[in-house]
Amino acid sequence: MYDIVADCSDNVPTRYLVNDACVLSGKTLVSASALRMEGQLTVYNYHGGPCYRCIFPKPPPPETVTNCSDGGVLGVVPGIMGCLQALEILKIASGQGSSCGQQLLMFDAQDAKFRTIRLRPKQNSCAVCGENPTVTHLVDYEVFCGSAATDKCRRLNLLSKDQRVTVQDYKSILDRSDFHLLLDVRPLVEVDICHLPSSLNIPLSSLENKKCDHIQVLKERIRQVKEQMSSEAQVPVYVICKLGNDSQKAVKVLEKMSGSEVDFVSVKDICGGLMAWSQKIDPLFPQY
Question: Using CA atoms, how far apart are residues 282 and 211, in angstroms rounded to an integer?
Answer without folding.
Answer: 33
